[in-house]
Amino acid sequence: xxxxxxxxxxxxxxxxxxxxxxxxxxxxxxxxxxxxxxxxxxxxxxxxxxxxxxxxxxxxxxxxxxxxxxxxxxxxxxxxxxxxxxxxxxxxxxxxxxxxxxxxxxxxxxxxxxxxxxxxxxxxxxxxxxxxxxxxxxxxxxxxxxxxxxxxxxxxxxxxxxxxxxxxxxxxxxxxxxxxxxxxxxxxxxxxxxxxxxxxxxxxxxxxxxxxxxxxxxxxxxxxxxxxxxxxxxxxxxxxxxxxxxxxxxxxxxxxxxxxxxxxxxxxxxxxxxxxxxxxxxxxxxxxxxxxxxxxxxxxxxxxxxxxxxxxxxxxxxxxxxxxxxxxxxxxxxxxxxxxxxxxxxxxxxxxxxxxxxxxxxxxxxxxxxxxxxxxxxxxxxxxxxxxxxxxxxxxxxxxxxxxxxxxxxxxxxxxxxxxxxxx
Length: 424
What we know:
The chain has helices at 9-38, 40-44, 50-81, 84-102, 108-111, 114-130, 133-142, 150-154, 156-178, 181-186, 191-207, 214-222, 229-247, 249-268, 274-301, 304-326, 331-349, 352-355, 365-382, 384-395, 397-417. The chain is mostly helical.
């Protein structure tokens, strides 16, 4: 980002705080997704078949997506009533501590049904905290953006996704190099969850130094905060919430098909070892960061909605490449597909930080943005690994590709129905 009059230390702190929080979010979420794909099945569920253990593990993965809208309501309520700063601190603490305590869970062999029950409880805590995280981070960035820079400021929370992914994936890759399979299953998988507390500490340090956003302060001057922000969102902004919800389906579907599902499928059905496939994904995630950067700059030259629509159209075509490229028996082709898909993920994810806040007035923006983003996460991402695994078992990878294309069409139709969003 080139220097501007707004690139003062306070602006850098704001952008860092928005990026760090979502980096923690994706680190937490992806270490869980990776562990769910690799070890949680046999560790936390009774043995019946490897497929059923994997599906059970993916089911716990989905719990957080259903917790996210609940968290969105709770954190959105306080974010619109008392402010962005304190709400973001609370969401980060809940999210980070839930992840940290997973490191200390007993396995099914140690505690029976208590083990998966505790895993589900902490997974719910992760999702509940996450429900207030992304929306608040996006508002922190775009409500402080100078004119003409909303797309580029709004992309910073999205850049936390590849940062968190690289940290999580890289740590699992290092553990695979230095630990034996037995050591990794016995205790090594716990280390990434323990390490999450360091990222949380960094995030808290940055966020506790923030002040409220100008947009929130101005909204308080104009009128008292809404008593029930959710009620106002439903009554006055129901169509915008619905359209925004379906507009984010595509980005969630891409991410969790190319990460959680691809890792599980690649290390089981395709027979690649864990370290090799993690390295392939680590190389591909760089293209997601590139896509986010392109989308942020492009959004300021056109509109976030236009860039999102182009990304959805291209993703429809990418869905038809999934089967031939992922199932060709070539790691190079798998890497090329993952790189392409994650670049497109950048195009349909990068503009969301500027796009979703533009659908709501500042007085209910935290609630509206959080609800749309997190309910869309259920539809697009929460069930994606389970559905993709079932589709792959039933009909092969071509059906998984069709699933991706349909998700992109859903988002495209939602974007087409929206009128030109208002200014943030």
